[in-house]
Design goal:
Blueprint (H helix, E strand, L loop, with lengths): L1 H27 L2 H8 L1 E6 L2 E2 L3 E3 L5 E2 L1 H13 L2 E6 L5 H6 L5 E2 L7 H4 L3 E2 L4 E10 L14 E5 L3 H9 L5 E5 L2 H10 L4 E4 L1 H10 L5 E12 L2 E2 L4 H16 L2 H10 L5 H4 L3
Parallel strand pairs: 1-5, 1-6, 9-10, 9-11
Antiparallel strand pairs: 2-3, 3-4, 7-13, 8-11, 8-12
Length: 269
């Protein structure tokens, strides 16, 4: 027993030392200064999330959030490096230093604020249960016994997990593209996502005729940054405020979604 406690104490000390070394390095870091000195900003995106981010027919990244990242780099007069990731890896990539910021449909939630920081909102996303227009779903009870697709690690995943009625079969996929394929192939009956993705699917597959059936929640999205990077967060806040004021962020949103940014974004402090 004594030996066990001794090794347990050593293990705890080891973890503390590792954590101390990591946090001390983080404390000295200054991502904004690095971005300026390197002349480059690394932005994580999810290229499997149309119309936010996608690889187009020319093999290039495109979408509303690619446009936002491009504008950010241009306004700051630095080069843009887009870092492809998945919903589950967006925050780990940021924390481990593989990206400087995340612009990837990252909703501002209390849980995420325990781990990372955010700029003020630059956009908004609803979470809906989508299905074919002919489907009569109107209540969550209608999902019982059905296969409900959702992208793993997303706020969509967290929300449907929280509100689902017992007996709902939640099927998690690694990215939006795979979730969409599951719905269209009949592997899933419903898809928890954003309305914009349903619109994108309909454009490519008119016969799908997908539409929102149940609105679960409306989330605002922010640019994700490490919690230790206050200077970078403040600089991003200034940029978002200026870009909302001059209408450029609204123009990007309207170009891709056909509507103006909601007041949850434009009136946010």
């Amino acid at each position: 027993m004594g030996a066990f406690l001794h090794y347990k104490k050593l293990a705890v000390v080891g973890v503390v030392l590792i954590w101390a070394s990591l946090t001390s390095g983080t404390a000295k870091a200054d991502a904004l200064a690095d971005i300026i000195s390197n002349g480059k900003i690394r932005v994580s995106i999810d290229p499997a999330a149309p119309p936010y981010s996608v690889v187009d027919e020319a093999g290039k990244y495109a979408g509303s959030e690619v446009d936002i990242a491009t504008k950010l780099a241009s306004d700051w007069k630095v080069k843009l490096e887009l870092v492809a990731t998945s919903p589950a890896n967006r925050i780990p990539y940021l924390i481990t230093g593989r990206s400087d910021v995340v612009i990837s449909t990252l909703s501002i939630t209390d849980e995420r604020l325990k781990v990372i920081d955010f700029s003020k909102p630059y956009s908004a996303i609803q979470i809906v249960v989508g299905a074919a227009k002919i489907d009569s779903l109107s209540k969550l009870e209608g999902l019982v016994g059905k296969q409900v697709a959702v992208t793993r690690g997303s706020t969509n995943d967290a929300e449907i997990t929280k509100v689902a009625v017992p007996g709902t079969n939640i099927v998690r996929f690694e990215d939006d593209a795979t979730s969409i394929t599951a719905l269209l192939s009949g592997q899933a009956d419903y898809y928890v996502t954003a309305p914009a993705l349903l619109t994108t699917v309909n454009k490519k597959n008119p016969s799908a005729a997908l539409e929102p059936k149940i609105v679960l929640k409306t989330n605002v999205t922010g640019i994700g940054v490490k919690r230790s990077e206050g200077a970078l967060r403040d600089k991003l806040n200034q940029w978002v405020s200026a870009s909302l004021k001059d209408g450029s962020l609204n123009a990007i949103y309207k170009r891709h979604f056909g509507i103006d940014l909601p007041p949850e974004v434009t009136d946010a402090k």
